[in-house]
Structures are given as structure tokens and as C-alpha cells.
Specification:
Elements lengths: L2 H19 L2 H22 L4 H31 L2
Helix pairs in contact: 1-3, 2-3
Length: 82
């Protein structure tokens, strides 16, 4: 394998690796959707608990979104550092 082909293969494998890492955002998106849906359902059942439910929902969304941000950072590191 010549030098140019090896470089092209390495670039392709980096792109595939970054794409696979970004699959981690699927779980974060699904988790946020489920969390928001259940929070709306809880508020509809008990409007007096709106403040507590919203606080816990926002905290849960922040934690789920952190996973997606970590995946993005790892994908960018794969693409631009290696």
C-alpha cells in the first residue's frame, strides 16, 4: 500500500469512527424526549407539583445533554487531533 492510499484509508477510518461516536447522541435525544413527555404528563396529573417536576426535569435534561456533548467532543477530537 502506498503512502497516499494509507493516508486516504486513515482519513476514512477517522470519519467512520467519529460517526460511530455520534451514535451516542441518539440515546441522549431519546432520553430527553421521554423525560419531557413524562414531566408534562406528571404536571397534567398534579398541577400543584409543577415547580418540583420542572426542576427535576431541567436537571435530568442537563445530565442527558452532557452525554451528547461528551460524544461531540470525542468526535471532534477524533477528527481534528488524530
Amino acid at each position: 500500500m502506498d503512502q497516499q492510499a494509507a493516508a486516504a484509508l486513515a482519513e476514512g477510518l477517522k470519519a467512520i469512527g467519529a460517526g460511530l461516536v455520534m451514535l451516542g447522541t441518539i440515546g441522549a435525544g431519546a432520553g430527553i424526549g421521554i423525560l419531557a413527555g413524562q414531566a408534562v404528563q406528571g404536571i397534567a396529573r398534579n398541577p400543584d407539583a409543577t415547580g418540583n417536576i420542572q426542576t427535576n426535569m431541567i436537571l435530568g435534561i442537563a445530565f442527558a445533554e452532557a452525554v451528547a456533548i461528551y460524544a461531540l467532543v470525542v468526535a471532534l477530537i477524533i477528527l481534528f487531533v488524530f
